[in-house]
Every structure is written in C-alpha cells, then in structure tokens.
Records
---
Amino acid sequence: MALRELSSLEKYLGLKKPNKYSTQGDKKVPVLQNNNGPPLVGLVTIACHLVKEAKRPELLGDSAEGRAVVQQWLEHRVTKLDGCTKEDTKTILKDLNLYLQDKVFLAGNQFTLADAFIYFGIHPLIVEMPIQEKEQYVNVTRWFDHIQHHPGLRHHLPPLVVLRNRIYTSRHH
Amino acid sequence: MTKETVDGAMEEQQAQSKKGLKKQQKEVEKAAKKAEKQAKLAAEQQSTEEDDFAKDRYGVLAMVQSQQKLDRTLVRVKDLTPEKADQLIWMRARVHTSRAKGKQCFLVLRQQQFNVQALVAVGDRASKQMVKFAANITKESIVDVEAAVRRVEQKIESCSQQDVELHIERIFVISQAEPRLPLQLEDAVRPDGEGEEEGRATVNQDTKLDNRVIDLRTTTSQAIFRLQSGVCQLFRDTLTQKGFVEIQTPKIISAASEGGANVFTVSYFKTSAYLAQSPQLYKQMCICADFDKVFCVGPVFRAEDSNTHRHLTEFVGLDIEMAFNYHYHEVIESITDTMVQIFKGLRDNFQTEIQTVNKQFPSEPFKFLEPTLRLEYTEALAMLHEAGVEMGDEEDLSTPNEKLLGRLVKEKYDTDFYVLDKYPLAVRPFYTMPDPNNPKYSNSYDMFMRGEEILSGAQRVHDAQLLTERAIHHQIDLEKIKAYIDSFRYGAPPHGGGGIGLERVCMLYLGLHNIRQTSMFPRDPKRLTP
C-alpha cells in the first residue's frame, strides 16, 4: 500500500524516473536505496525526500508554523492512523471532523503533503462508510471530496461518490 | 449430686434464671407494646366509627351482578368542560393516581385517552375517613364518582381536561385492582430518551407485550389502535365508493400459495392442510367469476423464521384485485388513489391520535404527492448508481438499498410514498405478467412508505397456457395448482392487484420502528401469547 502511495506521489510530482523501492520488516516499511548515502527508511522520510527532489518545497508548508503542522500530520498518519483498531477509527474521525470545521486544507491555506497522505490513509475507511455515517462526519467528507479532486493526485485510488445534498436530515430512522 | 454438679446445676439455675429474667422482661415489654397498640387501634376505631358522618358516601360496592337497573347517566371524561361547571354529575373511570395531602386527597381519574383531576376534601360532604379511603384506592381500580364540576383559574397542564376539576361527593369502588401492577403506566409512556436522561424507568417491549392488557390502556396504545381502526375503515369506505365488493377467502387451503417455504401446516382430519399465506389465488378466481373489483381484509400466515422489526408470523392483509380495460396502470392508479385517500383521512381526522403517539415516539409527519410518484426500476438503479451503489440490471433490491433509495427519493422529490414500476421478471412470482416489450422485465410494482416496502403487486397472467409455461419455468408442481390454472380456462379478463399489511402501514405512517407496536397481540417466532 505504502509503495503505491509513493508511486502515486511520484506521478503527482511529475518525477520522470520512478524509483525502485524495497520493504523491510513485517510492517513493510518502504526503503529507498540512495546512491549518495545511507538508504531512506519510512514513508514520510521518503516522501519528503521526493518533494525536495522535485523542487516543490511549498508542499511541506509555507511558513515555519505551516511546516511544523505538516510534519505533525504526517507523523499522525504513520503512528496513529495506520493499523488502528475500529474503536480508534471513531475517535480519529471525530477529531479530524472537529479540526476541519473551519479549514479547507489541513495545514495553512494550500494543498500540502499532509492532505495527500491523510487522504491516502483515510480512503479505505471512507470507502466502507455508509452514507449516514459520511453525513455525520460532514467536514471530513467535504475535505475528502475536495482533496480527491485535486488535479493529478488520485492515481491508485478509486473515486468516491459524495452526494451533493444530505439525505439523512433528521435523527430519526 | 456431687458438689461440682451441684455447683454446675446452681450455675445453670442461675444462668437460667438470668436468662429467664431477661426472657420475662422481654415478654413484659412485648405485652406492654401490644397493649399500647391495641389501645391505639381501639381509640382510632372508636374515632373512626364515632366521626364518620360520610360513611355511606364511599366504600367498595358489591360486585355488579346486574342486581338493579339504575337510571343514571354517566358522563364521559372527555365531556367534562367548563360548560358543565357547577353541575353535579356521575361518572365511571379508572384511578390513575391518588395522592393524599393533609385533609385533602387529589386523584387523577382516567378514561381511555382522557383524564381529569378530582378532589376529596374534608368538609361537610366528606369525612377524614373518606379522604383516607380515597387515598388508599389502588391504581387502576374502577370507581363510580358523583362530583360537582368546578372551573379552575389555572390550567391543569398534566390532564387532558385542563379547565375543570371534580369535587367529589361520593366515591365507590366498582372493581378493585391488585396493589402490585406488573408495569406502571407512566413508565410505559415515557419516551426512551427522557427515561435515560432523568434516570427514570421505561418499560421494555417484552414486558409490555407480556402484560398487553395493561400496556394497551396507555394513551399511546389507545391512539395507535384507534388510528389502525381508522385505516381499515378508510380502506373499506374508499374501495366501496369505487365500486369494489368485499369478499371473504378461505384460510385453510390445500396448496401453499406463495411457495412451500414459509407456510404453516395444520392437521386436517386424515391429511394435512396449510394456512393461507395470502388470498392471492382466491382473489383472482373471484375476478374470473365476474366480480370485477374485489377487496378482502383478513389474516395472513407466514411461517418466516425472521426475528426482525417488521416481520410477524400472523398479520392482517388488506388485499385488492381488479379487472382492467387495457393497461395495468389503471390498477396502479386505483391503488395509489386508495392509499392517498387513507393518508388524507388519517391526516384530517386522526390528528389527536398522531400527536399523542408523537409525544412518546417523535417522528416527521408523513408526506405524499398527488398524483403519486411513480418511478421505473431502471430509474431507481440509476439513482442508486449515482450514490455509489453497484447493482445488476436484474437484481432484486436488498433491504438496505430499499431504505437508501427511499432516502434518495425523499431528498429529490420530497415524498414518503412512491411506486416502483417494472421490476425484473426474474425476481417476481410465476403468475406475474411479463413486460410485452422487454422479456427481462415485468408488469409488476412495489409501493414504499418511508423507504420500506408495503405492497407488492402486478398484472397477473390470465392465460392458462402462458401460466402453465411460467409455472414450469419456476419448477412448480402443476398438480398442486391445477384448480388455479383451470380457473383461467373459461374466459378470464386481464386483471391485477396488490396487498398491503395493516400493521406495517400503521407503523410506517406513524414513523414507529417496530411492528409489534402496531399489532395488538403480535405473533412472531418467539411469541404465541397473550
């Protein structure tokens, strides 16, 4: 899964030559062999490296604070979201929903790596979610629909249908 | 005796006498207390007998065995209005609550959905003993009361009769209720949310159903079943006006009408028979017998081992069948118009009942369009597809998809009632007429209320040859349905119809969530009593 994300990221960044990745450990942590030095280990590490390679530093944040927030979200993705239990998902989604109440992007006012990787990570959860639940997490769904339409981002993931109008308006039934 | 033993005996004696002394003392105390109590009782009794000038204005009457014909009018609680102020009236009701407060006793007297506050106060009409008697009448007891109707300045919010109260002059118990009720009526009408919030008791469904007689006394139950009676009434009246004839069909039959899986078998003398799963076959035979337009109201038995919120093993079916001229849409129009008349009748004449039910079970009012919305199956598939649901062309709708479709239709057209037309032929019974232009589809339809199916219907095959072909295709034993096929051999008009479940229609109209709430004495795989 992580390897497909990295390959999608490469396509998004417009990197001409796709890299060859290997994995290590039973968690299948991606590894990138580097000609210049020690191998890069870890989804976030490799992603940041690719961004630098493609000379798109704004994807990591536009200010010191922005960069810190992006790193926080990337860490959140790898530590909390990946491999979480069903009960954790509910808390994670609830918190994300609250966070996105007044924001268009996760960090700052533009698309960053944080948006990309949280989108990749949360996709399997949203795909399984019944419409009623999607309407409950209204901000997550709105942000998700926005990000999945971001040009050039969505390569390995199928698009999700998000209804324009709410169909579960009252709390009954 | 040795000294030891003597000593021992002495000790024993001493111990005994100590014990004995104690015992004696206790006995004396006990006797003293008893005497005190008796004296008190005697004093009370004396005072009771002494001061009770109202002795013949209250009490428990002998069982009414039709000993006499009293020419007395009993006023209904719902007629206790300020117009009757200062009149002395008799009435019979249940004691809903009784609460003594010093020299007064407040009672709430209840009659079906209506209740009124009543008061017994120590004065020149009522004695202390009478007030005490009133306060001790057990809940749910039936009483005859003679009282003066008095206006009140402040509205009594907790009663249905808010502008008057009764000042009791005579009160007699006609039928006493046992002191421990299996459930409390206030608990049975409490909305679930409120119960949780305030930490008060609510009654769970099984308890209610086990003690149905008491549960049916609640205002909510009274309202639900009055509304149900209204549905039956409106069904009959509307169809009779349209020229339909009511018929009665047999429920003990020789062959399973809808397929052998969900049918009850009964022993029938030396063989067995089945309980009818629907009046289908007989409705159609009536059409072939020139009754033209028929309907029937009767029990339907389905041996489905489903423990869901919407299945019963026995329910009341309201079935329609009619001959039509050229197109089965004539039938759809007739049925939808009947349904709309029922909805209008309920909306216009049963608002009190609807509001009463909503107090305990809040829900949105039922919405419908005129003329009724009719969607084709292919349109429905497209709507579901747009919402991200993948379904095959000839696939039947699953329950979750039905519900989702209901939501999408509500959002798009703002209606809780619609018809889905042209179902795939593969998922319909063998007697359904195929579509003339597309063999994958059929002239059949379902109707939905709040996203749940309430009616399944179709144009029927009225040609004996085609019917035989369809039966063979469905691998049905022709011997078992010989009489049915024969009825189409001697001239049969084109016809169609459908059937609805009374309990389901009531449940969905009121926005309730379990069909046992709208069945008086429900039957399901786990329940055979009361």
---
Amino acid sequence: MAAPCRKMASRSYSQLLCCFSRTAVGSGACRRFSVTPIDRATPRASTAADRATSPWSLMAAVCLQRLPVITADCSPIEQRFKQMLQQMELEKSMLSDHELRLMEDAERMSRRQADDYDSDEDLGDQEIMMTQDLEDTWEQRLKNFQPAPRVRADVDEDLTSVQRCLTDSLVLLAEQQVGAEKLWLLPQAAWQEGETLRRTAERALDSMTAAGVRATFLGNAPCGVYKYKLPKAARTESSVGVKVFFFKAILVDGTPGSAPTAPLLWLKKSELQKYLKPAYMMNVGRFILNL
Amino acid sequence: MFERFLPLDPLEANCTDNPMLNCDVLLLHTVYVNMFLSFCFVSGTAAMNERQYRDMPTHGIGRWRHLLLKQPKKKKDRNQQKELVSATDTAYGTLNVTVSGYDMTVVEHYSQYIHNFCNRLNIKVADSYALPTKSTEVLLMQEQGNKTYVDAVLKTHQRVIQLSSLNASLCPVFMDVILKNQPEGVQLSVQEHTEADYQARFKARPELEGLVAQINQ
C-alpha cells in the first residue's frame, strides 16, 4: 500500500488550535469546541509511475463521536465513599468567613438581649443586612432556580437523536449499501485519486449526514483498519478485497439543518454489537474507547 | 621517630649479584622488623594505633582532580527559556495544554492526570507550570436601589503542561482519552507554544521600560 501512506507522509503538517470547554448544560447537547488550523500546505501530487497497482481497493471511514455532556452517576460504593470523604472534609475544615460572621451576629444578639446591656458597648454601625438574612435570600434564589433534567427517558429511547444518553459517548452509524446488501457501518467512502485518506473520510461524513453537522478530525493518522475479501463470485484479477481505514472525529455542532440522506443512528458502545457484524465489531471495538 | 629502629634499607646497602646473599639480607630485614614490632609492643600500644594521615609519605597519593583544567562555572539557568521544538512532517512541535476552571482541586487533579498520562505514553513533558490566578468579581444590581454590590468573587485557575513533541499518530489517541476524561467545569485548550506565551509569564517592569524609552528618545 505505497500510495496512501506516501500521501499521508507528504502532506505537510497542519497545526491545530483546539479549544474545548465543558460547561453545565449549554445551548445544545454538545460541548463548545473550536479548532483553528494555522498552517495548511497543499499536498504534493505523487506521480503515476511510482504507484504500484494492488488488488485491494481503499476506503476511508469516519468514527464520529459525541462526547458525554454531563458526568455519569456514581455507583452505590462511589456514593458512599463520596459522602464519607465530604463528611471528613467538613469535620477537618476551618470555619469560613460567612460562618464566623453568623457566630458574631448570634453573639451580639444574645448580648443585646442580656439584662445588663449597655448600648455604648455596641461600637460600629449596625449592619443593614444581617448575615442570617443574606443566607435566607440566597436560599430563596436557589429554590427559584430550576435545573434541566439530567435524564429524559423518552429522548434516551430515540436512537436517532443526538441528545440521548448525555452521560455516555455515542458513535454515529449509517446504513449503507455494500455489494448486494444493506449494512450498518461507520460512514465510509471510496478513496479517489489525488486526495488524502482523511479528506476521503471527511467526504464520507459530509455525504452521509446533513449539512449542519460539523466535526473536528483528531489527526491525519488513522486509528484502525479493517480489510475484507470480496465474495468469491465478485473477485477479479484487480480487486480481491477492500481495506477500510478509520479516522476519529469529535462532534462539534449537533444541530442538523436538513434531514440526513441516509438513516443514521447514535449508539453507545454496548449497543453497537446488535447492529454491526461480528468481525467488523471486533475490529472497530478496539479503537472505540468506552470511557 | 621510627626510622631509628629501621636499618637504612638493607637491600640497597647490601646489593650484590649473589642471590644467596640477598636472601640472607632479606632474612636480616625481617628479623629487624620483628625486633621493631616486639619493641613497640613492649613500650606501649599507642604508637602503633595512631592514625597516620598527613605525616604519612603516601598521603594524597590518589589525588587527580587538581590536575584537570579549571572549567568556567555555569550561571544558574533556571529562568532560561526551554528550546522551542519546531514541527516536522510526522510530529507536532512544542504544545501547551492549558487546563483552566473555577475549582482549583478539580483543575489541579486534571492537570496531574494529563501529566501522568503523558508519562505513561512516553510523551516528553518539557514543562509544567501554573499561570497566575485571575479573580473575577460578580457585581449585581440591588433590587431596591441603583447601587451594585459585590455578590461573588470567582477565581479562575490555570495550569499549563508543555509537551516538547507529540507524534502525529499518537495525537488522536491522546486527544480522545483526554477529552473523554474531561471533568465538568474545566476548560481544555491545546495550542502551540510561542515566544509571546513565554514572555507573558514575566511581570512588566515599568521603570526599566521608562529608562529604555528615555534612552531611545
């Protein structure tokens, strides 16, 4: 496979400025994410003479992931441990400024209510706002705040929605025609002359999904490869099989503008097994991290 | 003091070609030594057990460091800038992974996690430092009046991990794991390291700048 490797090495290196942020429930279901490429030199075109003909045809696929939006729930042991640590921290901690002020106020109140109270003792201006009142206003404001629900059962059931399962990372699958049958695969496209494999993967993504979906590719190097031989009937002298190279990408903007061209699914790694073929699943499962 | 008891090197004095005679001389020498030793034990053990240091003829026999040429002392280079590695076709150059957020424990733990992860993947970490904390005061308008009052002070902490070079094939794996482990409320940013970034860490010196401006005028 001299051709694509040389292509990837000759492509001059694009510097990426990546900025990822993770704040509490933003506008969409995805994190804010920006990538600014600094350098992008044009790749040198290799001559036709040094490309060796090979019976394997090449394809590039994209493994588009939507990262988790909120933290996963703690398991029972984790919850108990967390509570214990919080309790220990509370017991070891010193009093904060707010708590000290509360204590001072309580002391002053008790002094005023005592029988031998001397008003001259009360030096300094009386605070307009007592500390206890401050605390009450804060409590009131907290009660008025309504956070969005963490888990919505109906959205979780919908496999095509990108906002399902906010605690897990999801992978995009598309149903594609391969040979005679329709299979669920990671979106892939055939490699064409004069383009890099990463460009092929980008093209695959653009063709499968709607226009509004933006993704950032994590690098020029593929993360996995899957090769399969064509069935004996379809094999010829020049095409024995296909090699598929996978590229990892992160979803930036989740809101699709128009309807997708092919049926899409957003699945967790545990659900992938039901849709992918076993050999394919074994290969793909190696680079999809279950974090 | 002990030379009185030792004969003046009997071997040299009685050196003849006859080996037989030399043997006799040796025997004589050992007899003398034995006599000397017995004499010592008779007089007292202090003489034998005294430590021989500077008086010993062989004192300083192994010294060699005084024979080397003196090397000039290097000045303390703690504040020197580490060399910037430039990007090649297969690897990134010097990268800055900045972790910032409001909660210091979370930010510090996450930066420690990234550092340990780099060590595990054998990615060379050039530097690991903290940028100064920025305080943000949140002022809210009072409900009754027009005055604003200080509601909260938010401190933004920043930690930077500088990687000297990152292999392009390792980059997707590295970024994927780091993104998936990003905690809530923490911003991550991966950028190239520039000279300007390094200079921004130093405090501005207004007197020096004033003097320089005066000189240039």
